Amino acid sequence: MWSNLTNLIYSAYEQFNYLPLFIEIALAFIFIAIFATLIAYGVILFRRWRGYVDEKRMAFIRPRVEEMITEQVLLNENLEKMQVAEIEFEPAALNDKIYKKEWVRQIIIDILIQYRKNFRGEVGELLRKLYLDMNLTKDSYDKMKSLKWERKIKSVVELTQMDVQISDVTILPLTNSTNPALRAAARNAYIQLSKNEPFKFFDIATEPILPWDQLELFKIITTTKDIAIPNFSRWVSYSTNKSVVSFCLKLIAHYDQQSAIPAVLDLLANKDHYFRADAINCLGKLSAEVAEERLIRIYNTQPLACQLEILKALGRIASGKHLEFLKQEFLYSSNFDIRMNAARSIIKHNTPGSRALIDELKEITHEENRLIISHCQNPLIKY
Amino acid sequence: MKSISHFFSSGTFWDIIGVLYQNMVFVYGTSLLLAYGLLAIMSLISIRRYMKKNGAADINVLVESPLAPGISVIAPAFNESVTIVQNVRSLLTFNYPKFEVIIINDGSTDDTLDKLILEFELEHVDYAFRASLNCMPIQRVFKSTNAAYEKLMVIDKVNGKSKADASNAGINLSSYPYFLCTDVDCILNKDTLLKLIKPFMDEETTKIKEIGHPCEECGFQHIVEDYRRVIASGATLRMVNSCEVDGGLLIRVRPPKKFFPRFQEMEYIRAFVLGKMGWDLINAVPNVSGGLGMFDKEIAVQAGGYDSKSFGEDMDLITRMCGFMKANKRKYAVRYVPETLCWTEGPTTLKVFGRQRSRWARGLAQIMSIHRKILFNPRFGRLGLIVFPYNFFFELLAPLIEFTGILYYIYLIVSGQIMWVYAIILIVFVYTYSVMITTLALLWDQITFKYYKTWGEVIGLCLMAFLEPFLYHPLILFFALKGYFNFVTGRKHVWGNMQRQGFGAQPKKKTEPNPA
Amino acid sequence: MTSILIIEDDDIMLKAIRNILTKAGYNVLTAKDGKEAFDKIDNEQYDIVITDLMMPYANGLEVVSRVRSDSRKRHVSIIVVSSVGNEETITEAFRLGADDYLKKPIMAGELLIRIKKLIESRSHTSAKLVTKKK
């Protein structure tokens, strides 16, 4: 029996050897393809099954966790009566056996984070206390030890969301990680959690801050309480990292740091015109009246992007001293965008003088310019 | 002389040709299959990378941020009276802080516009704009008097007989630096804008120029020297045919039940998940589908916008945008998101399906001939050395080679020369391999998201892979050849009679997104 | 008893606010998307609407404008609760007739105080109207 089979295989192999090469290759691939297809089916079914189990487990555990948090935190009787730090949770509610399982603890962390995104103040504090009292910090710290960077990020994000201190020794090396996502998460954590000098990394940042990272940083800087907002002009003057400077320009505008105006003015001499445009934009948002003269002086030597920014800035500053300049640009420029922005900036002044000027312009100008004016005057059109 | 005539008549010559042809086809076929296998591996890597990268990131940061870039959503509508109100309402509910919705009424002959005016309290406004792209005249522009719809703008324009023309009008009037092109009857995910703008904002800078030496010119260290500008991004499309939809919102996703849409669902998944994601890994995405794509407006306008004469205007635009970036020596990337964000209606009848496929084939042929300079041109980098050769050999030539192959097979059978055993082995080889590729695509697709509710639906779709080579594929082959035929004859027609300029853009209702 | 309609697509937030307000002694109605919201706005009785801005079917601004355009709902106060921090959106909400705006994450205590104040000021004005009529 066995010898028959081995004979058969052997003879099949003999014959296989006599086949032309391309048929041999084809046969080999047929086996590979059938094998791979079967495995793919197996994996699909396995994943579906696992997904199904996960869903079931979630459907079971989620309501329980939510109820526990509602009882212990949201509807806590002591919330108005005493300091958050003094509130004690009911031990029975927290010590449910099921809360010892690792996957359940992960779900609790995720749900707590969701709540923290919706609530601050005392409820937010109490959510944090629940996280600490259930010793979920340990779960988060454990992930930091993982070799996978995505687990490390999760750890950093959880700890930051829960406002739990991470030691500088742990977090600082991560801010220089070669993985951009991890680097960004660590940077965010450092700013939010570092008590003494959160903006220190601006000094040492050698890598660019991507626009996406800027979003996150901006959010953290503007929403973290008790963060000391420094004078950002420091980096505008001294940083050699372009992305740091342009990010600082946005922060200066956001915090309306008037004292930064001289530093921003210095950027007008920069050779990179995208950069200059950012600086002009910032000056406009600061309503820097001192900058007006300079902007008009450099206007003619600027590329279009900067010219448009200058026109916008004049509209924002709206001192009324340069209506004549805007009028000239509106009437005589051949560029549509320049006329559009000039008109918009005149209208933005919204003074008796500017309104009179608009009426005058409507009289003397041609059809297309009149259309531009009525476009800009229409409150239904935002841009 | 005698020997030469003998050479021909004895058949030696034809034998040699036959052997040559056989070998060529074998090499071609094998490399095609290898390319597919390679794409499968590349796409797995890039999907996993995407999942890891975005698993940790909280996309909602964008929603809250005042730094979120503005996006113009551009959706042309032609005679969509029945569904227009719901669809526009749905477009206005994106999770995004800063966007506008521009509906282009492309000379509808029904009451599409009236319905919009009534429902959204629209009012005619004087709108000044610069026509940076060519399009048919714009008659009126409407804005809503109700501030709840301030994001909406409706353009009424003369029908330009193509989606490209309408999209160009929308781009002309858009006010934000990015635009999303879609169809008004597509069902879009609420997070579409968030997910498609993200690739523009987190493109990694790979190499960093020597730091520590500020640039002489500007005084700053050029650390973003190797920055690649993302010029477009896209995501997977699926069929909406058998899904449950309520008020422009997807309630339950289901694979289509009807013949054509069902095969198309499978084909789309394969083209997007396997194809586009695979190419994404080496930054060589050939096309962003017309059904859903986000573009950098500055580059799109400089590249000339959509070409209303093109039969494949989406691929044409991407090709020109990439070409533009290369010509200006700037680094660029086109990015793909492996999640399905758009559900579109697939044709259900043979007639409409056939027309669609012939148009795609014609579009491909047109692009290849218009941009033939790019092919094998090292100056165009990946575009000239990877994207175009792949499209040329494995997309454009595939139907032709397959067709001649079939003819040759028939000849061999008729003349009795066929080696049946070998022939069957080869056919089984191609068959099992193609089933494997499709099954892998469906598996990769399930990695990102559990799309269907039951495993029965997934397996049901997988089984289509076994039927495809017999039922669906021959039809695609036929219509592709028909499209090439139209391309060859259609062009002659235009040359022969210049007055019939409209021929280049036959009246068509709209262009379905091409996954290829 | 004061009735409050909460419109919010985030399940956790919806339940949380509902619980807090119920505990504070209000009668609470909920809607989890724009469609349900429109239905309840037209057919239910309520004194205060708390709405999110971004949700399926309709956005919060539409909700505000719908309530404000209904003459029978003059007495209704509207509070917008959203994570959107964009200045234009906030002013737009006020222009359409929202009475208050809270940015997520919110403080539960603050929400309760604001609701209380709105109820007080409304009853003030309506009391005035009543006396005038007399």
Structure description:
The complex is a heterotrimer of chains A (383), B (516) and C (134). With 383 residues, chain A is an all-alpha fold. Chain A is built from 21 helices and one strand. Chain A has a domain at 1-134. Chain A is 72% helix and 1% strand. Chain A is extended. The mean pLDDT of chain A is 88. With 516 residues, chain B is α/β, with parallel strands linked by helices. Chain B has helices spanning 2-10, 12-56, 61-64, 84-91, 112-119, 163-173, 192-201, 259-281, 297-302, 313-327, 350-370, 381-414, 420-448, 455-496, and strands at 71-77, 99-106, 122-125, 138-144, 152-157, 178-182, 187-188, 229-239, 244-246, 249-252, 292-296, 332-344. In chain B, a hairpin with a 2-residue loop joins strand 9 and strand 10 (249-252). Mean pLDDT of chain B is 86; it is low at 492-513. Chain C is an alpha/beta fold. Chain C is 51% helix and 19% strand. Chain C has a five-stranded parallel sheet, with helices on both faces. The interface between A and B is large, with 68 and 68 residues.
